[in-house]
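Example with several molecule types.
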Amino acid sequence: MSISLKNVYFTYPDAPHRPVLNIPCWTVAPQEQVFVHGPSGGGKSTLLNLLSGMLVPSQEGQGGQGEVSILGKRLDKMSQRQLDRFRANHIGYVFQQLNLIPYLSSVENILLATYFSAHKKARVKSADVEKLLTKLNISPDDWSKQIAKLSTGQQQRVAIARALINKPELLIADEPTSSLDQDNRDNFMSVLVSLVAENKITLVFVSHDKSLSRYFNRIDALSDISCLSGARGCS
Amino acid sequence: MFIKLALKSLLNRKGSVVLTLMAMTISVFVLLAVEHIRYQAKENFAKTVSGVDLIVGARTGSLNLLLYSVFRIGSPTNNIAWESFKQIANNPQVKWAIPITLGDSHKGYRVMGTTKPYFEYFSYGNQHKLKFDQGSAFNQVFDVVLGSDVAKELGYSTGDAIILSHGLASTSFSLHDDRPFTVTGILEPTGTPVDQTLHVSLEGIEAIHINWRQGVKMPGNKMTEEQIEQLELKPKSVTALMLGLKSRMATFHVQREINQSVREPLLAILPGVALSELWQMMNILENTLLLVAILVFVAALLGLSAMLLSSIRYREAEIRLLRVVGAPSVFLFFLIQIETLMITIVSLILGAGILAISLAVAQDFLISRFGLPVSSNILSESAAYYALGIIAASIVIAIIPSLKAYSKAKINI
Ligand SMILES: Nc1ncnc2c1ncn2[C@@H]1O[C@H](COP(=O)(O)OP(=O)(O)OP(=O)(O)O)[C@@H](O)[C@H]1O
Ligand SMILES: [Mg+2]
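Resulting structure tokens for the full complex:
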């Protein structure tokens, strides 16, 4: 399995009695492309942060800490340093906005992402970066322009390049299209889906916009994954 | 990549960074300037006179005597009678005695009457003797030897004729214009008040005051040089004496003898002791200046810290992004530290550069106005310590914003 969550329970430290997530069991197979939808404030971003190791599950009563297993590795057992390295090497991440450092150029942003993935750094060449940018319809004139001077649609596509440059096995997307208009959105989605398929990447994509579900073969509602009141256990 | 990120991030925040940089540069400039001038003043000070065992003048404060005899600052209250000079010079313990007479000037530079042994015995710094750059000591009544700054500033060379003025004002209207002097020698630079002095013989001083009563030129028939040289130009009094003793051991003995002389009230001082007394007085001023400079620097550092701290709020998305691509939390800590270091080093270079340039420009002014020879070479051991101190202090101060960035990175999202 690419992703396997068991008995994952999460509360933010400033509201310890208000659980945000309670996931008895959730799995994603390799190369699966999952669309997770849920209402705003439902905990979608929180779920993704658990998958990337930015957040760790909370202790729940006597039940202990749940299991977060990504690409066969137990994130809940890793040290902070190991988590940082794992994230750099295996996980790509695209947010809703501010995916890039505004005062660097596209190429610099992408190279920055390779800076932290120690063992892949050597293999990434500027040719790879250029190939990726070309594939994402970014014209060469814009490669060394400051990010702040690109359009939102261009920025989001560069963000895909940044997320994919380290050849991650898992790509996490947190409403990356919500700041885009209809045309840009379609453009973004088709590029994303084809790149993910081409590179055999597992994709978890969250949004509250159900109209995007047509790009995916598996669609989960957050409320089905996370049961805040009621039964638990892996069925 | 790390350096580049820090650099680009600073460039992105040009406005606040430039202002902070200016504040830092000014504070570094002030700090280094105070330290440099302090250091130089102390160096110069200690080396103004050496090899002179005792300085003798009319009874006054010892600092006053030191100031007018060595630094040519202020004026003597009273003179020493020629007979007293003779008596002291004949003391068996005294190896040499050099009389000096002050009171006239030339274009703001002091004229000192003395005797020829002055050029032989007077020394400064580490027992350096006076050396002639051009010409030689005075032989005739109307010969003059110039300090190096006098010659350089006024553009004189040997053979030139000079008119001295009575009194000390540079625009003195009472010129000794009937008696021009000829430059016979120019001394090498010493970095002491000697450089700003014109040296003439005691007879020369006497000669130009013939026909003068109470500081006013008396009308009368002008004597020819030949006539003057026929006269016996014996001075009636001198301003001060410099003594060299046969044995250092006798210093206190001779000093006591002179201080207790019955002929007239005299004061003998040890130049070294008086110099350090004077230095001690200046120490308070000097330390106050240094303290102010340090406070200015601390204020600039706090400004730097505040600027970085507020930038972190504005860079939250950037921090989150760096974390997501796998930057460890300490990366953020060092990123802020590097930014601080860059600002500090640039301001150090700018501050030191501006200081070196302004010293080079102000050098002449400091010399002619305060007799303070300050070199524009600011690279000294103590300056290096200050530079290290500045860098260390900025690193310490930057811990505050760096920790803020670190904890922001730690808490995530
Ligand atoms: N850093 C935080 N500290 C405390 N509570 C938080 C934090 N982030 C989110 N929450 C809370 O957790 C809940 C889930 O937030 P989350 O951001 O995961 O929702 P979401 O489904 O991504 O919403 P949206 O669609 O608006 O992005 C919300 O009630 C929110 O108030
Ligand atoms: Mg969200």
